[in-house]
Design a protein that fits this description.
The complex is a heterodimer. Chain A is built from no helices and eleven strands. Chain A is mainly beta. In chain A, strands 2, 4, 5, 9, 10 and 11 form a six-stranded mixed β-sheet that branches. Chain A is globular and about 50 Å long. Chain A starts with a strand and ends with a strand. By secondary structure, chain B is mostly beta strands. Helix content of chain B is about 0%, strand content about 45%. Chain B has no helices and ten strands. In chain B, strands 2, 4, 5, 8, 9 and 10 form a six-stranded mixed β-sheet that branches. In chain B, strands 1-3-7-6 form a four-stranded antiparallel β-sheet, with no helix packed on it. In chain B, strand 6 and strand 7 form a beta hairpin. The radius of gyration of chain B is 14 Å and the shape is globular. The relative contact order of chain B is 0.33. The chains are: A mainly beta, B mainly beta. At the A-B interface, strand 4, strand 5, strand 9 and strand 10 of A face strand 4 and strand 5 of B.
C-alpha cells in the first residue's frame, strides 16, 4: 500500500462546478499536511496547508480527519485556470527520521 | 532571485556519459530534497539532506546516482553512465523545516533540470 494515496484522475468538469479531491495516508506518525498544485511542465507550488480545524482560502477548502487518516480538497466555482495536477503531501516525523511524501497527484481539467 | 535555483535547465547527453545537476537552495533553509519526475508521472523521492545529519539516500534508484551537499548549502546530483531511463525532470526543493518549531515544512521547488539521454 502506498503511504499517500489519491483519487485516480483525471477529473473533467465544466466551469463553475464544485470538485472534491480525496487523499488517504497510512502512517499515523504523519504530522503536517499540504495540498500542492503543479501546472503542466512546471514545478509544484504550495496551494494550502491543511489544519485539523479545516481551513478555507477563497474558493478552496481543505479538511483533515486524523482519525480516518484522510485529507480532502474542495474547489468551488471552478475556473479554467484551476486546470492542473493537485498533489497531496504528508510530512512524517518518527524514530526513523523525517520524510516528505507526495501522492501521485490527481489531474483536473476544467472546460468552458 | 531568492528562490531555489537549478542548473542546467536542460541537459541532453549521450548514453554512458556522466552528468551533474546543481541546486542552490533558499538561503537559510537547512533541508534540501531531490526528486525525479518522468513525463506524466508523480514525484519520485531520491535523497534528502537535513543540516549536518546523514542524508536519507533511500530513494536513489541505483549506485549510479549520488548526491552531495557542501557546506550545508549547494547540492550536486551526479548520475554516472547515464541510461535512457534516466531521462526525466530532476527537481530540487528546500525547506526551513527544523529551523523553528513553528515551521510546518513547506517545500519550495526549483524549476527543475530536464535531462534527456539519447
Amino acid at each position: 500500500r502506498k503511504e499517500v494515496e489519491q483519487d485516480p484522475g483525471p477529473f473533467n468538469v465544466p466551469e463553475g462546478a464544485t470538485v472534491a479531491f480525496n487523499c488517504t495516508y497510512s502512517n499515523s506518525a504523519s504530522q503536517s499536511f499540504f495540498w500542492y498544485r503543479q501546472d503542466c511542465r512546471k514545478e509544484p507550488k504550495l496551494l494550502m496547508s491543511v489544519y485539523s480545524s479545516g481551513n478555507e482560502d477563497g474558493r478552496f477548502t481543505a479538511q483533515l480527519n486524523r482519525a480516518s487518516q484522510y485529507i480532502s480538497l474542495l474547489i468551488r466555482d471552478s475556473k479554467l485556470s484551476d486546470s492542473a495536477t493537485y498533489l497531496c503531501v504528508v510530512n512524517i516525523w518518527n524514530t526513523g527520521g523525517f520524510k516528505t511524501i507526495f501522492g501521485a497527484g490527481t489531474r483536473l481539467f476544467v472546460k468552458a | 532571485g531568492a528562490g531555489v535555483s537549478q542548473s542546467p535547465s536542460n541537459k541532453v547527453t549521450e548514453k554512458g556519459k556522466d552528468v551533474e545537476l546543481r541546486c542552490d537552495p533558499i538561503s537559510g533553509h537547512t533541508a534540501l530534497y531531490w526528486y525525479r519526475q518522468s513525463l506524466g508521472q508523480g514525484l519520485e523521492f531520491l535523497i534528502y539532506f537535513q543540516g549536518n545529519s546523514a542524508p536519507d539516500k533511500s530513494g536513489l534508484p541505483s549506485d549510479r546516482f549520488s548526491a552531495e551537499r557542501t557546506g550545508g548549502s549547494v547540492s550536486t546530483l551526479t548520475i554516472q553512465r547515464t541510461q535512457q531511463e534516466d531521462s526525466a525532470v530532476y527537481l530540487c526543493a528546500s525547506s526551513a523545516i527544523g529551523t523553528s518549531a513553528a515551521n510546518t515544512g513547506e517545500l519550495f521547488f526549483g524549476e527543475g533540470s530536464r535531462l534527456t539521454v539519447l
